[in-house]
Design a protein that fits this description.
236 residues; alpha/beta; six-stranded parallel beta sheet; two-stranded antiparallel ribbon; 9 helices
């Protein structure tokens, strides 16, 4: 459904006319007003990407690396990731850090289903991606993608905190290009709920595109630098 802005001084046709909008903005600037023009989707996604709240979900040793990201040496509060929630209804993503057994799989799926849209999943470490060193075991799930859709894969056993933070930056990039109105936040119908996929994936399917490809963090860029607590830059 197309939303038409209703403003007395600006006819609707002029919203598609960049020259008229630029002339109006220049007039406001000359009058001493500061005006910023852009898409509301980009503004909302900018706020969402910089305030990703993670569900406190760690089942194995990769959770220690996730905890290290919140300490003073790495301090991922600089990126807006510091708020973690114990309730899936207040979380934006599941940072699955650790082994998922078949006994734990229903609980993981239940937590994912209880999260509000839009929601994301980050698979941290070899166990969450493919079962890791336990992939031949009878009781370990061979990758959480068999249960829930994954947006970012961060391999390692365990991955370093720098890799986890770089993977979160890739998730930020995915959030920034989403279509929020009518896409990531639309209300699902009964038939859509039975499919068990996210709103964003349903939008891609309606547009005829393939399922959004997950991001795989193969390595951290050589020039990726972070400031340590001593104030010096440390290259990864």
């Amino acid at each position: 459904m197309e939303m038409k802005p209703k403003i007395k001084s600006i006819p609707y046709e002029e919203w598609n006319d960049n020259e008229s909008l630029e002339r109006l903005v220049d007039e406001l600037h000359e009058g001493g007003f500061n005006v910023v023009t852009g898409q509301l989707d980009k503004l909302i996604n900018w706020g969402r990407s910089n305030s990703l709240w993670s569900l406190t979900f760690a089942t194995s040793c990769c959770g220690i690396e996730f905890m290290a990201c919140g300490c003073s040496r790495y301090d991922f509060a600089r990126f807006g990731f510091e708020v973690t929630r114990n309730s899936p209804r207040q979380a934006d993503l599941i940072m699955c850090a650790g082994t998922i057994t078949h006994k734990m799989a229903p609980a993981l799926k239940r937590l994912y289903d209880e999260m509000a849209e839009p929601k994301y999943v980050v698979a941290v470490g070899g166990c969450a991606i493919s079962g890791g060193p336990f992939k031949s075991s009878y009781h370990v799930v061979k990758g959480i993608e068999e249960i829930i859709p994954v947006d970012v894969f961060i391999p390692g056993c365990p991955p370093r905190p720098e890799a986890i933070m770089y993977g979160m930056m890739q998730l930020q990039r995915k959030v920034k290009i989403e279509k929020f109105f009518g896409g990531a936040n639309h209300k699902q119908s009964k038939d859509e709920r039975e499919l068990g996929v996210s709103n964003e994936e349903l939008t891609f399917r309606r547009l005829g595109d393939h399922r959004r490809e997950p991001i795989i963090v193969t390595d951290v860029p050589a020039d990726f630098k972070m400031e340590t607590d001593e104030g010096k830059e440390a290259a990864v």
